[in-house]
Structures are given as C-alpha cells and as structure tokens.
From TrEMBL:
Residues 80-275 form the IclR-ED domain. GO terms for molecular function: DNA binding; DNA-binding transcription factor activity. Residues 25-86 form the HTH iclR-type domain. Keywords: DNA-binding, Transcription, Transcription regulation. It comes from the Bacteria. This is IclR family transcriptional regulator. One of its GO terms (biological process) is negative regulation of DNA-templated transcription.
C-alpha cells in the first residue's frame, strides 16, 4: 500500500525518511529545511511527507516545494513527488572549481604517493565534518581482505566520530565545544571520549597538546586514522587532513611519523587556501 498518497514505485523511498536535523524560524530556513529530508536512503520527498515531517500546512509545503523547484534545487519526478534538482550539480561543479580549501588540497595531495593508504581532506559544516577530497585508493588491503574506505567527498560525520573530526573539535571555541558535549553526551560517551563534561574536556586538551588525533576502527573496522588540523597563520581553523590506513600498520611510533608528514602537508594546504582566498 503506497504511503501518504505516494505512487507505488516511490512508496519505499519515503516510508522511513528521517526528520530534518535542524529547522529555522525564518521563511528561508523553513524552505531549506525541506532539503534536509533528502538522504541517500530516501532520495524522494512528497508533499504529504513534508507536511508530516515538518508540521507545515499543505499550502506552505506546496509553496516551499515550488520555490525550491523554481531555483532548480529540486525537480518534480511525478505529481507531488520531488527529487534533488540540476542546480545542485551546477553548484557542485562551481565548488570544485572555486573552493579555496579544495583547490589547495588538489594542488598538494595528488603529489603524494599512496601505498595502501589514503589522504582525506575535510572541512566543517555546521556540526558535521564533511570530506571534500580523497587522494588514494578506494579500498585498502588488510589481513588478506580488501576493505572499502567509508569516507569520500560529500560524506558528513559527527564532530566526535573519527580522527578527522577529533582533529578539528579541540580548535573550536570553548563555547562550541561545550555545546557539542551538551547536545551529544551519550554519543560522546559511546565514542570513549568521556563519561562527563570534565572527562571530555580533558580529552580535547590532550588532543590539542599532542597536535593530532587518532582513531581505530571508529568508521571502518580494521582501519585506523591519523589526522591534524589545518590552521591559517592567524590560528583560524580551516579544516583537517587525515591519513587512513590498516590498523595493523599503525603503532605509536608510526602515528607520530604520519602526524609529522600530515602537519607539513597541512601547512602547504593552509598557505594555498589563504592565498586563493585573498585573490
């Protein structure tokens, strides 16, 4: 039975679609909240689903869908059924050609020879860490297995999951670190970063003092990561750079060696990013 009046071929796509992560009281924010309903698992959104998930009236849902479609951000796949639109492809192309951090990473990372390891460049988007560039293989050899690297361009992760995320979090403002903890205490505890605020704060101080973060099997079993922050000369956080490799190839001495190399690459990326932004 189709749900919410969705054509049968689309019903499965929206049955378990999640609620958006964030809403806004502004008209623009409420329109953009519709975009949060689109996910990889649920690429189709209906008028009925928008009204239910966002508690909008039917006329409001239609208005926002019409405005988003007019901007090319979504497109009508069938009457009352929408998918992401062609403007997003256009914007992705523009980002690839103009984003200072991405362009700086593109100039630096492909020059590095990768043997059973990959380099991953990330930036911060709201409370998510977004991979914007990967240099190296899509899978690593580990214990006789080929294991796919789960980080790739466009994939977001929480601020406390994985080395690339943890390399950025300690360099945020004290207020933002505190808010991250208050909003995610259970997830942070599960990640082993502290059972309370004081333990979490000490974890962040330790990462900042060391200058790099590590994780083991957090994102992908048998795969570890070493990551460093990318900082502008002013100290402003630009992003993070991570190396992912088999856990079996990483001990404490190797962590420090990889971190030293990453810091050198991060400085070059920061310089390129700042120079590109100044043009």
């Amino acid at each position: 039975m189709p749900q919410c009046g969705v054509p049968a071929r689309y019903a499965g796509a929206v049955k378990y679609a999640p609620a958006p992560t964030k809403d806004s009281g502004t008209s623009l924010g409420r329109a953009f909240a519709v975009l949060d309903l689109f996910t990889l698992a649920h690429p189709i959104v209906t008028v009925e689903y928008v009204t239910e998930a966002l508690t909008y009236t039917r006329s409001t849902a239609y208005r926002y869908l019409r405005e988003l479609a007019g901007a090319g951000l979504i497109t009508q796949a069938a009457p009352g059924v929408y998918s992401l639109g062609p403007r997003i492809i256009e914007l992705e192309r523009l980002m690839a050609l103009t984003d200072p951090l991405y362009r700086a990473g593109l100039d630096v990372l492909p020059q590095e020879r990768q043997t059973n390891t990959a380099l991953l460049l990330h930036n911060l988007y709201e409370d998510k860490v977004l991979c914007i560039l990967k240099a190296g293989p899509d899978a690593l050899e580990c214990g006789g297995q080929r294991i796919t690297i789960r980080r790739a361009r466009g994939l977001p992760f929480p601020l406390f999951q994985g080395a690339a995320s943890l390399a950025m979090l300690p360099w945020l403002s004290a207020h933002r670190i505190r808010q991250t903890y208050l909003q995610n205490p259970k997830s942070i505890a599960r990640a082993g970063l502290g059972e309370n605020w004081e333990q979490f704060r000490r974890s962040m101080v330790a990462v900042r003092r060391t200058g790099y973060a590590t994780s083991h099997g957090t994102i992908t079993p048998l795969i570890s990561g070493v990551a460093v922050p990318i900082l502008a000369p002013s100290g402003r956080l630009l992003g993070s750079l991570a190396r992912t490799l088999p856990t079996e190839a990483l001990d404490e001495a190797a962590e420090a060696r990889h971190a030293e190399v990453l810091h050198g690459l991060a400085r070059r990326i920061a310089e390129g990013c700042v120079n590109a932004s100044a043009r």
